[in-house]
Amino acid sequence: MSADCIGPPRSQPRLAASHRGGVGLGWSGADFLPGNRIVLLESGAQYFPALLAEIAAARCEIRLETYIYADDPTGREVTAALCAAARRGVAVQVLVDGFGAREFPGGLGRQLGEAGAQVQIYRAERAFLRLRRHRLRRLHRKLVAVDDRVAFAGGINILDDNDTPGLGPRFDYAVRIEGPLVARIWTSMAHLWRLVGWARLRRRPPVQTPSPCRFDQAAGAMTAALVIRDNLRHRRDIENAYLEAIAGARIEIVLANAYFLPGRRFRRALRDAARRGVSVTVLLQGQMEYFLPHYATQALYGNLIGSGIRILEYRSGFLHAKVAVIDEAWATVGSSNIDPFSLLLAREANIVVRDALFATGLRNSLNRACRTDVREITRADLQRSSLATRMLRWTAYGLLRLMLGLARYGGKDYRE
């Protein structure tokens, strides 16, 4: 790929600083807070040292939520740090998903419990082969809150980045947050911890308050919001945040997503943006991790490319990122993929940042990633595909749509 492999052509002007952050670049349903300092962390090489440093510095409390908590070198290192914190009197609470972290309760979870940490499982898997609709509703958030000082959010599980022989490290993002937004993250985590305990014990646990409480102190100049998805009041919040920002885009949209199977509304929004002259680039997974979503996503390539949307496949390693930059003024880093499982079923958490410096930094990071092993998919590539490959793509797409229909999720958005 070229040195500037994402974004508008060189002949197309970038947004002037005075025009950034215009109408449509913030979502009216999100509560944006000023006064934050947010640092972008690229993959585990930057995330885990920052996380371990904050765990070591914790004085009162550590909360951690994750989908996957693996018993590998990274998982054991994080566990040792959490156990050490618990032994020195820090209140440690760890919440993991019952499907993504199936082996955790009897392994690393037991070690944490023995050290004095509290551990809860979100929807524990007790009958692995039993088919029930609620089994698709998973905890996919990756959040950490340490004392009242700092929080982490993003897409990085407690999992070693270098666990696939022959491929580079898993490519993902997280953010380190200081400032008033930490309070929103703490409150959301405390609420979910309470709900899980209530469901397990069949009684309402007491409401918790952090101590000491200094959440309102400004730490920087960034304006940002926590946007969550759940199955009650916030069912479409993350998708709506994306859609409003896309509708307001003037120059450029860059999306990087591990699993990309958008519904009709999302696809139409991207096509409309491209038709009004916005440069739209979508960076997707080039390595096959899961058969059905891999081929189902490829079934959409022709329609997207035909609308003027660039499709890039990342092949250096597994792309696990779930980020976007719009007009170098709006950016999001989080756990939510652009697929029905994230947008309709799972509990997710994204940070949306309205700050030109942060957005530019994320865009530059994505551009650097594109210089390694990225291939642009063209219409000619699709035309050269064999009949068997084309049938495989549409069969995978049809199967996923059928699964959603049988589970009665998604409405017309995924059954057009």
Instruction: Let me know the largest β-sheet.
Output: 15 strands, mixed
Q: What's the architecture, going by CATH?
A: 2-Layer Sandwich
| Spatial order of the strands forming the largest sheet | 4-3-2-5-6-7-1-8-14-13-12-9-10-11-15
Q: What is the CATH class name? A: Alpha Beta
Strand content: 15-25%
Spell out the helices and strands N to C. EHEHEHEEEEHEHEHEHHEEEHEHEHH
What is the tally of helical segments?
12
CATH topology: Endonuclease, Chain A
Give the low-pLDDT segments.
9-27
Q: CATH H-level name... which superfamily?
A: Endonuclease Chain A
Total strand segments:
15
Helix content: 25-40%
Q: Give the N-to-C terminal Cα separation.
A: 35 Å
The chain-level structural class is: alpha+beta
Total count of domains? 1
Mean pLDDT: 87
Structure notes:
The structure is a single chain. The chain is of the alpha+beta class and 416 residues long. It has one domain: 2-Layer Sandwich (Endonuclease, Chain A), CATH 3.30.870. It contains twelve helices and 15 strands. A 15-stranded mixed sheet has the order 4-3-2-5-6-7-1-8-14-13-12-9-10-11-15, with helices on both faces. Helix 1 runs parallel beside helix 2. About 5% of the residues have low confidence.
